[in-house]
Design goal:
The chain is built from eight helices and 20 strands. The chain is α+β, with helices and mostly antiparallel strands and 410 residues long. The chain has three domains: 76 residues, OB fold (Dihydrolipoamide Acetyltransferase, E2P), CATH 2.40.50.100; 51 residues, Dihydrolipoamide Transferase, CATH 4.10.320.10; 208 residues, 2-Layer Sandwich (Chloramphenicol Acetyltransferase). A hairpin with a 4-residue loop joins β11 and β12. The protein starts with a strand and ends with a helix.
């Protein structure tokens, strides 16, 4: 009989993926749990494994195709097993979807030269960046797998061959077209969906960072590990929690289908991470239950693994509120886009020394202080302007007087 392996739902908000690599070809024998393909979603890279023993009858999708949930990926001819004994995998069967790091080498048996090209996703990406057709590259790895050095050798060989030929004057090209794929494609779609769905509006305000600087210096001096660097972000998250508890509507989402506001009484804070492949938002679960050093360590770990594409699916799901910090890059103000279906996102800008008017002993005076703008975008369908202004006032109060956070802790 013929078993149709479909691309199934692997988690919250994942409706499609890009087929990066086939590990098998038509006519190949496969075993249960054998890796068949690698798929990149907006969340993570996953390996798709076979739930049955059999022979590949046909590959229904090509490398580079975008596959929607429910579409058939591959047809496998099995033995004369009655249909009742071969069960369709449940919608979220994690045995079919195993997170994979981009540099992970396959342990599958060598394939014939007529089969799909063997190469890790990172190597394939590098080949695209270099303008190389990876099918033309001779692989030196196991089973003919293409490795990074093979790309350089291919480029050098091609250049030498061209130099031996008569010179060809290329046409002048002032444009470059790159397929919108992978994470960048997912980011584009999600941003468009958020803008089309949520009624965005943004409020800006500024905060005096003097107390934040003192607390940051004190935290660094008390750090027990040199591996953990205390930045402003974990302290701001710590100040953010009591403000969210006081204004829970900012820690909610809207169920559009049921027309219900879902208020979350747990605090999973997403942190936007800039990577070479695009924006990834890992989530700090139960941030309210962690101290500044624990938050700093988790931020460092999640950011590093986001950039190496080594996050697990659950680590990019379940956020209730998102913080995007571009202070280390620059920029005075921004209008961040909400990570739908959340209702708010906080933008943390770059702190700069500026002259400001402060009050001392009841008298105004000019002082030099490090000031930072905060930009919060909210869904106006759920949050009114007055509410977000009060929330931002409270957050600024906690940042400028972090000792007040202790008064809110149980």
């Amino acid at each position: 009989m013929i078993y149709e392996l479909k691309f199934t739902d692997i988690g919250e908000g994942v409706h499609e993926g890009e087929l990066l690599l086939w590990h098998v070809g038509s006519g190949d024998s496969v075993k249960e749990d054998q890796v068949l393909a690698e798929v990149e979603t907006e969340k993570v890279e996953v390996e798709i494994t076979s739930p049955v023993d059999g022979v590949v009858e046909s590959l229904e999708k090509k490398e580079g195709d975008v596959v929607n949930v429910g579409e058939v990926l591959v047809k496998i001819e099995t033995s004369n097993t009655p249909p009742a004994e071969i069960k369709e995998p449940p919608p979220k069967d994690e045995s079919l979807f195993k997170p994979t790091a981009p540099f992970k080498e396959s342990q599958e048996k060598p394939r014939s030269n007529s089969g799909p090209v063997l190469a890790a996703p990172a190597v394939r990406k590098k080949a695209r960046e270099m303008g190389i057709n990876i099918a033309e590259v001779k692989g030196s790895g196991p089973g003919g797998r293409v490795l990074f050095p093979d790309l350089d050798i291919h480029t050098k060989t091609s250049t030498e061959q061209v130099e031996k030929q008569p010179a060809i004057v290329p046409q002048t090209g002032l444009e470059e077209r790159t397929p919108l794929r992978g994470i960048r494609r997912a980011v584009a779609r999600n941003m468009r969906k958020s803008k089309d769905t949520a009624a965005h509006f943004t409020v800006h305000d500024e905060v005096d960072m003097s107390s934040l600087d003192r607390l940051k210096d004190a935290a660094e001096s008390m750090a027990t590990s040199e591996d953990v660097k205390i930045t402003y972000l974990p302290i701001i998250i710590k100040c953010l929690i009591p403000a969210l508890k006081e204004f829970p509507i900012l820690n909610s989402s809207l169920d559009d289908n049921k027309e219900e506001i879902v208020t979350k009484h747990y605090y999973n804070i997403g942190i936007a991470v800039d990577t070479e492949d695009g924006l990834i938002v890992p989530v700090i679960k139960n941030a309210d239950q962690k101290n500044i050093w624990e938050l700093a360590a988790e931020i460092k770990d999640l950011a590093e693994r986001a950039r190496s594409r080594d996050l697990k699916l659950e680590e990019v799901q379940g956020g209730t509120f998102t913080v995007t910090s571009i202070g280390n890059i620059g920029g005075a103000m921004a209008t961040p886009i909400i990570r739908w279906p959340e209702v708010a996102i906080l933008g943390v800008m770059k702190g700069k020394l500026r002259p400001v008017v402060i009050e001392e002993n009841g008298e105004p005076k000019i002082a030099i202080r490090r000031m930072m703008f905060l930009s919060i975008s909210v869904d106006h369908r759920i949050v009114d302007g007055a509410t977000v202004a009060r929330f931002l006032n409270r957050l600024i109060q906690y940042i400028e007087n972090p000792g007040l956070v202790l008064l809110r802790e149980k």
